[in-house]
Design brief:
Elements (H helix, E strand, L loop, with lengths): L2 E2 H17 L9 H4 L11 H15 L4 H12 L15 H16 L9 H5 L20 H15 L10 H10 L7 H10 L3 H9 L5 H6 L6 E2 L1 H17 L7 H16 L3 H13 L9 H4 L7 H18 L6 H8 L21 H16 L10 H13 L5 H14 L1
Antiparallel strand pairs: 1-2
Helix pairs in contact: 3-4, 3-7, 3-9, 4-7, 12-14, 13-14, 13-18, 13-20, 14-17, 16-17, 18-19, 18-20
Length: about 425
């Protein structure tokens, strides 16, 4: 099995932007060092715009091809260390430093392109050495210097104001911080590209015209195999689960159960691994859900439950960016469907819910029941199966899948 690495990175980038949209702490990320008010900033296209600006500047600086590729991937992933920011309360300077360090540690585990970890680590360093890690001047990787400026420019850019009404302010602010926050050569390149109207038109339209970024992106013709994809899925599962204090092992628990049941049922090893990956990624859409809802220590309101339900939709939207994993996408995004048609998000009935989806759905419920939650202690296995059997009797979930899970656990216990 061969999967396009670039498509995976673009999917992760979308997940990161969705995560920042759901964050109520956005306004603390860079305000302290940049004086940019972020409380009203929209983050839907943050990674995409930052990457566009970075690539335009990098190409104007005539960076070599390998550096452009590193810049491209690092720009898309530059905030990977901030995806679970809501689980902690930091001051601005502390948060900036810690999310850079965390980002580096995450990127180090990528099966390829792990050498961009230093770019991620230093992407908030100021050129004069006043940044969180106090690196200065040419000691900061050129890619980090570019991303730092592109990141802050994107944060200053406002979606609800036409570009022609704000570009002068942005250009002036960048110029004023030349040789202090920013490398003067990076600023010079930025000022050069922003003279052309097309740059600002592209920033306005990049959110719904993917070809704008596609047209300037370097060709990343690297494919990865299923084992390498699983390593990336495992990295993402840790980010997903760390967003909430009460789901620290949830995705990995479901992944393990799904694999074990799949082995018990007799699936091929490749299919079992795919089920394990589906378990790791099934809740990636929760990055778009505010932690205040995920961790609420009380019953959810109707509105809050509607927001929670949307996570499966976002799981599908994110994973559909990746070609060649249609089965994993279907299984991962259908784990809340019910046989009687009362599930979500598509309201599928039994005829359209595959055996794999039924297994993953039962594993998800079981894992959730035995885990601690804000509103209750985790249940015993017997208590969990009493609930599962009741749901099966009521036509919600598959009784065969429940029995397959029980038999699997009995076998390995």
């Amino acid at each position: 099995m061969s999967i396009c690495f670039e498509k995976i990175i673009r999917a992760i980038s979308l997940a990161l932007d969705l995560s920042q949209i759901s964050s109520v702490e956005n306004s603390t990320i860079v305000e302290e060092i940049s004086n940019i008010p972020l409380s009203t900033h929209k983050f839907l296209n943050h990674s995409k715009r930052t990457t566009y600006i970075s690539l335009k500047v990098g190409k104007r600086l005539n960076l070599p091809e390998e550096s452009i590729k590193n810049l491209y991937i690092a720009s898309l992933l530059h905030d990977i260390g901030a995806a679970n920011s809501l689980s902690k309360s930091h001051t601005s300077s502390t948060f900036i430093k810690e999310h850079c360090i965390l980002g580096e540690s995450i990127i180090k585990n990528l099966p390829i392109y792990s050498d961009i970890s230093k770019i991620i680590l230093y992407h908030h360093e100021n050129f004069n050495g006043s940044g969180p890690l106090h690196l200065k001047n040419k000691d900061i990787p050129i890619e980090s210097r570019i991303i730092h400026m592109a990141d802050l420019v994107e944060l200053l850019y406002k979606d609800n104001i036409p570009a022609y009404k704000q570009h002068s302010k942005i250009i002036s602010w960048v110029s004023e911080n030349s040789n202090t926050i920013f490398d003067k050569n990076v600023v010079k390149a930025f000022l050069s590209i922003t003279k052309n109207d097309i740059f600002w038109f592209d920033l306005e339209n990049i959110g719904f015209m993917d070809f704008i970024l596609d047209n300037i992106s370097p060709e990343i013709d690297t494919n990865i195999d299923l084992d390498q994809f699983e390593k990336i899925a495992y990295i993402l599962s840790k980010i997903i689960d760390n967003k909430s204090n009460f789901t620290a092992e949830h995705s990995r628990g479901i992944s393990k159960l799904s694999y074990q049941v799949s082995k018990y049922v007799g699936y091929s090893e490749e299919k079992c691994i795919k089920m394990r990956i589906a378990g790791l990624l099934h809740d990636i859409g929760k990055l778009a859900i505010p932690t205040s809802i995920l961790d609420k220590n009380a019953s959810l309101t109707d509105d809050e439950f509607s927001i929670i339900k949307s996570h499966v939709y976002y799981t599908k939207i994110i994973l559909e960016r990746i070609d060649g994993i249609d089965d994993i996408i279907y299984w991962a995004s259908s784990h809340h469907e019910k046989l009687n048609g009362k599930g979500y998000p598509m309201g599928l009935t039994s005829k359209k819910i595959s055996e794999e989806c039924r297994i993953l759905g039962v594993c998800d419920i079981y894992q959730a029941l035995i885990e601690n939650r804000p509103y209750r202690k985790g249940l015993s296995s017997n208590q969990a199966f009493n609930i599962l059997n009741g749901m099966a009797d009521d036509g919600f979930i598959c009784p065969i899948a429940v029995e397959q899970l029980k038999s699997t656990l009995d076998k390995i216990s």
